[in-house]
Fold this sequence. Notes:
The chain is of the alpha+beta class. The chain is 41% helix and 22% strand. Helix 1 (15-24) packs across helix 2 (27-34), helix 1 (15-24) packs across helix 4 and helix 2 (27-34) packs across helix 3.
Amino acid sequence: MKQNFTVRQGALDGVEAFLSVAQHRSFRRAAAELGVTPSAISQAVRALEARVGAVLFLRTTRSVSLTEAGERFFARARPAFEELVAASGAARDLGQRPAGLLRLTVPRSVVPILLEPLVASFCQAFPEIEVELAASEELVDLAAGGFDAGIRMGQFISPDMVAVRLTKPLPFLIVGSPGYLERRGRPRRPDDLREHACLRLRRSNGALAPWSLNDGGRSIEIAVAGPFIANDFPTMLGAAVEGVGLAQVPGPLATDAVRTGKLVAVLEKFAPMTPGVFLYYPSHRQIMPKLRAFIDHVKGRSRAAR
């Protein structure tokens, strides 16, 4: 059974004073070390003894020594206090310079086209930061998942997040292999898609995503059908290359396959534009130096690419 546990307010008060007195065997030298008066040290130790419920020091006019209870308290309190000081220093260090583990949740589709070159240059620029990419199509809770930030297409980012643009607005292209188009013909109008094998995307909430198109400035959605369903764009793209059917994917993801002739873009004038890809993080969160360094690196790369 889980026990309820709370840290009492002031539970650590007087511990530093006690440790200093125990080390120096002197209230006066402890006061000088900590920059307070001997009276303040004495009051802090008496308050600690009252909370512990035992006398920790034997005091005479000439000497100070530890009682048996004091010896036991000192043996366990000193390493614990030193560990607390070290933990505080480690946290302060990460709060003041870009270092540590930067965890990002990203969709698989952006890793090869965007993050691989970006992360490579970032790791070279900031060798004290480790970058961890968790590739998933799910829209995870950043705090619950222990992530510093996420990367997603703009339309999927909650309005209460701070978003930093990574790409320009990009089109969603419909592509098919030359072999498939030779067998089934090339669609000329959006309605023609109803006669084609269309590869579909299952969203993280379980729903099948309809295909969106732009018909003369009017946004339309088509419930397509086909023999294959995937939960990420790279898998859909691979199936399209193999001739399974048509796929609608982010334009940059299909660039190489189209350039090399593995895929052909169709219905290009009906391709809808999306806001693009963004880095996002909670607006209320204090930005650690490691995340600030990544944001500045992203912005610097974006300016250089213009």
